[in-house]
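Cross-check.
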Amino acid sequence: MIEGLLRRLRRKEALYALLAVALALGALGAAYAYRLLSQPDALTVAVAPGDGPETKLMEAFASALREQDKDIRLRIVPVEDVRASAQALQEKRVDLAVVRPDVQLPVNGLTVAILREEAVIMLAPEAGSVDAVPDLAGKRLGVVTRHEADLPALEMVLRQYEIAPPAVTLVPLSAAGVEEALKGKRVDAVAVVAVPASQEAVGVVRAVSAATNRKLLVLPLDEAETIALRSPALGEVAIPPGSLGGRPRQPEEETKTVGISYRLMARADLDRGPASKVAQHLFQLRSRIGRDAPSVNLMKAPDTDSATYAPLPNHQGAIDYFAREQLTFMDRYGDWLWMVLFFGGSVTSGLAWIARQFVRKRRELVDEVLDRLTCILTEARAATDPAVLDALAVEVDGLVTHAVRYARHRTTGLRTTTALILAIDSARAAIGDRRAQVTGERAATAPEPRARRALLS
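Predicted model, tokenized:
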């Protein structure tokens, strides 16, 4: 009987311990979840190393995020070139990447921001034989290459006019050799891929102007829209009047041409929340970034009007920021919070029910001890064998030991304690009284010794 009660109590204590462990794990889970939600999002961005404008911009952006203690962090992942950067994004080794779409466009890349957009600028002497792009057939076009991908992009443009090499001879030039090449008749026109109004573009225009006695033409690419339709990596841009400098200012009027962009792209599966934060902080910290990377002033937002059908799609997170539709904390996590509250209430109710069951079981165990003591009281009154009384006394001692241990480790009510004391005292008193009675009766009925019987006879 006692061993059965002890086993049940040990099982109950194990359930208590299990409940405590469950509550501790729940508290640790809640603390871990809070820590995850309060920590900044850590993102990786692939960019070609060196002193290029994109590298400086990303490094300045990462520093500004740390200084301003924003809710995202950037870790620069250096790669060989823009092709390797696009490949890293496509293979999901990074979250963001600086990409030049005409070199390689990652299939899972979505635009967050256009870091800068360069234009294909073609210049020719006013008195020469080239007045339009088709006139370059059979001529020599000097190409000031600033990037290894500039030449393939230019060939793509010439292919639209059906004058791609060998129909036209492409002559690589340095910016310093433009004036000499034109004066020496080694080239008939000059092309450069650069940002209008940049030092590189203005420098080439000055060299052509010096070689042609300030008489030059900026050749328009009238089929720029068609080129952009055929090659989504290229876009149609306009060279603003006077943006190329020179005297007179070039161009005299807005001129259409083909644009080549450097874009900050994000993985398509990157959550819209972090992507929206990247776009937000990139544009809001522009003045801080510009101290270390002036090229940030060339940055612009992608066209969000055609976001759903753009040839180079934009990331939904960036669209949220540009359209002022950023999701709030409740928008992103509201459903989860309600689910946690709902299931948390259910779990709390379940735990409360389990606790009540434990309390009820505890009361039942105490009641069983009291019932057993009551039975011992009855059995002791009816016992006729001292061995039975000894066994009942041992059992009472065990129940006393258990009651003391229980009262020490559990909160026991005054009424219950009083009942236990009365039951134990009564059982012991009954055993003692009955032992005395049984001993007296046996003494009274015991046979007389032989000597006394003999003396009496």
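The CA atoms of residues 129 and 135 lie 7 Å apart. The first helix runs from residue 2 to 38. Passed to J.P. for a second look.
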